Amino acid sequence: MKRPLNPTSRRKRPCRMPRIAAAILLTALTAIAAPKARADEGMWLPSLIGKRIDDMRAKGFRLTAEDIYSVNKASMKDAVVLFNGGCTGELISPEGLLVTNHHCGYGAIQGHSTVEHDYLTHGFWARDRSEELPNEGLWVRRLVRMEEVTDRLAAGETAEKICEEAAEKGRYRTAIEQMYYGNQQFLFVYEQFDDVRLVGAPPSSIGKFGGDTDNWMWPRHTGDFSLFRIYADRENRPAKFSRENVPYRPARYFPVSTKGIREGDFTMIYGFPGNTQQYVTADAVAYVVERSDPMKIDLRTRRLEIISAAQEADAAPRIRYAAKHASIANAWKKWQGELLGLQRLGTVAQKAYETAFARWAADRPEYAHLLDSLRAAYRSATEGYYLQELCNESVKGIELATLAAALKQYAAKPSEALAERIAKLYRDYDPAIDRRVAVEMLRGLEQYHPRPLPEAYTAETTRCKGVEGYAARLFDASAIVRFDAVEPLLRDTAALRAALQREPVLHLVGIFDRGRIPRNLSNLPAVERWYRPYMKALREFDRERPFYPDANLTLRVAYGQVAGYWYADAVYHRPLTTLDGIIAKDDPTVYDYDIPQRLRACHAAKDYGRWSIPTADGGVTVPVCFLATNHTTGGNSGSPVVNADGELVGINFDRTWRSTMSDLQFDPAICRNIAVDIRYVLFTIDRIGGAGHLLKEMELR
Ligand code: ARG
Ligand code: ASP
Q1: 149 close to 162: Cβ distance less than 8 angstroms
Q2: In angstroms, what is the span from residue 642 Cα to ligand 1's centroid?
């Protein structure tokens, strides 16, 4: 089902990539000495964008800080939403039309798909408003305003009071978020909409074109978009789903540019990046490079090999494990790129900055101890964090553990929704695959766990004569492997609780699981407490450096430009792909590359209408994806990419995998985000979806 189009899909050696050009290495190395925010690094707070606006305008931006963020008048921020807690979306019409990625709308599209109406495979286009499909549980959030409240909190006001006041009697949702490890606090006030309907989605063969094979790769040809509409009550206020609701009229929406982009053009991305750690010390980077990433990559490689083999052997697991494979592989590939990037940049060995800081701090008693305190904190906290990460990737990589956890949750608090989720987990479950995974995960656990292993664990493996025997017992002595056995228990929670008491996989989890961990090692309270003064000190020490707070799923602005990059010696990756590249990849025998017949026909007839662009050899084609230098991360999927005039030119959906170390260190020579060109989106809606009526409500420029 996969062809070795790129080195990652070659089995056995998933980590190898060609060596990067020496020239890039040199630029990267010279940049290390002073890790200043260079070029296009940075995820800036919109309310403070005034401090960056001169730089933005020098780089081509033609609008003002007020156009980006304003509390007094409509601004771009009113057209950007947090989409269901993990992605970004943007408004593109005065009637609440919203666009995000296909992979962000995937759950909703899948939820409406049945054998008769398989929208994932064939796409979905509402012909009019009455056909737009409601989505239970799907929400979007718009930022009403944000405000620094550090001083108010310091003066003794409580967070509860500040939030309650800002919520205006339940009209808004509020949160106080920490910036710079708590040196500054910001209040965020959101308006949440719960009636969000599906309007359109391309077939997966466009929206997910290239699948996991092309994921994190360039050149890319994915039409990764889907369309929704926000509905509100007659006063334009958020409301629960109702047929009485009407399309939301946003204060601001993005005009759509049909003029296209060229290398060097200014780009701005406005969205909700989730998590970065730009200011951590070498110890934290060493943890990622030497322990965490290698362990997680290896365990996932082993899991994926078992799943892929089963998928290749049989059609049923190919479908049932498609989504699971995609999500396991997504982070797996990202970590490989991150590891490679950090090794290449030499981020761990980069002590010069810390040495300089130490020298500066030496005669400042309040700061002099900080690096030592951080080092000591890492020394005592790292092992516990590592063991929990190991547990999450190994023991909890066994699906039976996931099933048991869901059942345990159900036994404590049964609900219709949870029962439905559990039934779905079982529909996609193949115990034969999971048994093989379990053996491999126990082997991995033993390999990565420091000695001695917990006694409770060795007691089990001794009793079962090794890991194979123990893995077999997890299944043979289990009461929850088959749904026919579980189903009656869902109606009798006392019996379910009793069954779970004896469940061997829960005993295994109990030996290793120490509960939730913060998103990064450095966010463990014992470590983070030192980052707060360290961050404060850094900002005094390095006054020239333009600091921006780490991503934390709050709204940010990143700016840069459309740009290719040197992929390898003599190999330059140009920033724009076209339909011709899709046709070159097209292969009806390969699932990820089997395009819709309609697209083939369109290409054969060169029937592109207004979406055609000239090729170098005098022909015509359609633009598809482009690369830019914007600093983005997970959560930025679906973010608007706008040009110097604030017009929508693309929708962000990925980075190249070599870019992903930008979560810790941004390298302007290599880091590139990937967007789908808005012209390909319009072309697909118009020519493939036959939904040209949707274009009429947009402001095309
Ligand atoms: N790599 C992108 C991100 O991290 C896209 C993931 C979805 N696509 C996929 N083929 N799994 O979200
Ligand atoms: N694909 C990511 C997302 O879904 C974006 C990234 O990591 O660059 O948010």
Answers
A1: yes
A2: 21
